[in-house]
Amino acid sequence: MDIIEIASAIFTLTLVMDPLGNIPLFITVLKNVDEKRKIKVITRELFIALGIMTFFLFFGKWIVRLLSIDIPSLSVGGGIVLFLIAISMIFPSQHNSFSDSSGSEPFIVPLAIPLVSGPSVLSTILIFNMKDPGNMPTWFMIIFVSWLINVAILSFSSKIASFLGPRGLLAIEKLMGMVLITISVQMLLTGIKRFIVG
Fold first, then answer.
1. What CA–CA distances, in Å, run from 177 to 48, 57, 71, 147?
2. How far apart are CA 134 and CA 129, in angstroms?
3. pLDDT, tens digit, for every residue of 50-69?
4. For the stretch 132-145, what's the b/e string if a residue is b when 16 or more beta carbons lie within 10 angstroms of its beta carbon?
5. How far is 122 from 116, CA to CA, in rounded Å?
6. Comparison of pLDDT for 106 and 145, the residue scoring more
7. Alpha-carbon distance 29 to 100, whole Å?
8. For 87-90, which contacts have Cβ atoms below 8 Å and span 24 or more sequence positions?
9. pTM above 0.85, yes or no
């Protein structure tokens, strides 16, 4: 892989993780957690998410083979999931299930799963891996760099939200949604093309 492909993969995975779009959700879920405790909780959840993504990088292909799923199916399925995620970013729902916080400190759900390492992220990682299974160190580096970008953004979620304001966050999320739509359509077309050729 050359540097352009690596940068493209990092950009795509970071977009799929949607750290800016997750800022309002993180703030809502952690609203009842003490300010001094928030950073520790966010760090813990992000490390759990990294562990889940790493697990899927190394063992996801065996799960896929066990289920007899091929690359075109995975590409089309991942593209559909990404498309739906992108649509929800551009046209956000008025009601969000994560906003109903019970007051207890979140653990794994919903921060690590599905906000950071959700179905779309895991599908993207599986597609990356199945396209070039012999390049594990590079794929892990891509996941790790994307994860570090999420750590940097979400660790300062309160400050970023205050700086950008609700309109700024919404505008950036819609822009990222538009970019993600083009990526999802490309994944769909690639999967369909491989199916026809195959």
1. 25, 25, 24, 19
2. 8
3. 999 999 899 888 887 888 87
4. eeeeeeebeebbeb
5. 10
6. 145
7. 8
8. 87/177, 87/181, 88/177, 89/18, 89/21, 89/173, 89/174, 89/176, 89/177, 89/180, 90/174, 90/177, 90/178, 90/181
9. no
In angstroms, what CA-CA distances link 40 with 45, 88, 195?
Answer: 9, 29, 46
The pair of structure tokens assigned to 53 is 């993504």
pLDDT in tens, 2-40: 899 999 999 989 988 888 878 877 887 787 788 788 889
Q: Are 179 and 20 in contact (CB under 8 A)?
A: no
Are the beta carbons of 158 and 53 closer than 8 angstroms? no
Judge contact between 85 and 181, C-beta under 8 A.
no
Token couple for 6:
């690596």
For the chain, the domain total comes to: 1
d(CA 94, CA 103): 21
Residue 11: CB atoms within 10 A of its CB come to 15
Nearest by Cα to 124 from 175, 71, 87, 176: 71
The boundaries of the domain holding residue 99 are 3-197
